[in-house]
Amino acid sequence: MNTDNQKKWTSRSVGSRWQHSFFYLMIKIGGRRLAYLILHFVAAYYVLVVPSVKKKTDPYLSKRFPSAGRFRRMYHRYRMVLQLGRTLIDRAVVGIIGPEAITAGFHTDEDIKKLQDLDSGFILMVSHVGCWQVAMSALNRLEKPVNLLMHLDQGDVDKHYYEHRQNSRRPFTIIDPEGFLGGGIEMLTALKNDEILCVMGDRVFGSDTTSIAVDFLGKKAPFPTSAYKMASLAQK
Prior knowledge:
two-stranded antiparallel ribbon, alpha/beta, globular
């Protein structure tokens, strides 16, 4: 993968600050249902009017639905934008209304017990499927410090769930992949201290040396290997 293309990636939202603030207000007034209702119209606007949405979604949709015609492709694009919007709403709901507004947990109590019984730190692989931040809110049940490898863009206007409450402490320590050695020392230290390390398993950030090409949707795509390297170094 071209390193220059990776550097062009940004976590900045397509929406403006006032648009996000509008949805935060709708959540306070009518909760999740009202925000979801309004989102249908907003998603349609982005699909029909904003050219960058087509540019960003077509690489995936052309491979996922290769035989779809123009209007069918537009329908899939609408669904994709709608689901992304719901994810952002769910994240805000957890922060504005509270974690009790959305059920987040483990599949079984046995899963929790297995993790709680570990005498060492461990790596948790997460991905951009659904609202991963809602899932993160359930990690406090493990009673271990949590560290997250994540890049924070200074231009972000959409709030993380913990930023919606005044004087609220960040529930995890952020390790910046743009830091010294890609945050490797901090990640290794967290594991040595028997803490939880969360790493995105579907996004490469940095040089080609931290990824490996695998078959994905008919072509080679880079996937990060930093979590596996950290596990090997820490012998986890």
